[in-house]
Design goal:
mainly alpha; 5 helices; globular; 128 residues
Amino acid sequence: MIVRYVIAWLPMVVVGIINGVIREQWYGNYLSELRAHQVSTVTGAVLFGLYIWAISRIWQLESGVQSLSVGFIWLAMTVCFEFFFGHYVAGHPWSRLFHDYNILAGRIWGLLLVWITVAPYVFYRLQQ
């Protein structure tokens, strides 16, 4: 059962890319970089939430433990993808990648990671 959720993570990459394209092509031109990052984090949370909700309706999670396991697996996959793709494919320096984790500087990306982690559990509980 967990394997299907690992596979279900793959479209989340597409959701993230779509969210980034929307930011870069639309409101990113009108907002500061920080504000665009914050808006993008919120829109990403909504988009990921809709996707995770849909997946949880199609493939219902069997327990709270399983839903938390899925969330932590998705967290690990997301962070690994972000850092490995961001550094080795996109060529971003490590400092730029870590910059989005500085919540004291208004960078709220970490909150999106928390949401990706707990969303399967939230939707599991809502279906109970």
